[in-house]
Amino acid sequence: MPVLIPFIASEMLAEQIDMIKQGNHKQLKTMVDLGSQFYVQANVPDTTFIFVQVGFGFHVQFTLDEAKNYIGKKVQRLQSTFDCFFLDFFFFVHQIAIMVSSLASRPLDLVFYVFFLTHIPITVLFDLQALYPAAWVPQPLLSIVAWYAEATGDPFMHPLNNQYWFKSLASMEAMLQLPFFFVACNGLAKDAPWIRLPMVVYGAHVVTTLMPIMLELIANAAYNLTSTQRTMLLAIYSPYLIIPALILYDGYSRVTAALALVPVSKKKD
User: Fold this and answer.
1) CB hemisphere CA count around 255 (13 angstroms)
2) N or C: which end of the chain has fewer CB within 10 A?
């Protein structure tokens, strides 16, 4: 914690000043750290003044009383910052607890929330590799995708995939779906009514894009997939079709129910 280290250092310096004043030490022998925990003995011929670091590498010469007064004010300021940090931290934890409790009471929304939340790193780190220049992608991520493509025979995640229709779908994922993941997480956490209609649009969009991908995996013999590889790929891709279909159905049901509650104004004669 950034605040804690200077707080402890200030307290220790105040104690050392008290020790010098109470012991009436005119001279001191001490050990000085030259770096890498290498210490040498040093003599302090006069303890009347002390240099205190005030920030940005600057040191100011103080008398012991002046230094003690400065340290007291610094400790008060650090204590205030420390208290504010803990208040913010506990408020954040409290908000998380409220969100988790709210989502736990809505199991389907909890599934949707986890789906959107986990989709963010998957999209950024793996799905969009089809669009990134190779120099932008760290080697470990390239290796993971290469291993996955080799093990499953996934034709869309292969490093040499040049199917532009798939790249167009990946572009839509980057421009539309990825920003929506953050919006959806926020809306679901708050159980906001306004999120349901965008979720209908999202569900319809993803179901529409996943269907040709699933059909390609099932029916296109040009990929030379073994039955094991095809089963693995269908198992991997199916949740990304089934859950958006649930999102579409659930959102449509909620929006339809909400519209049914809106009174229809009678036409004037």
Assistant:
1) 14
2) C
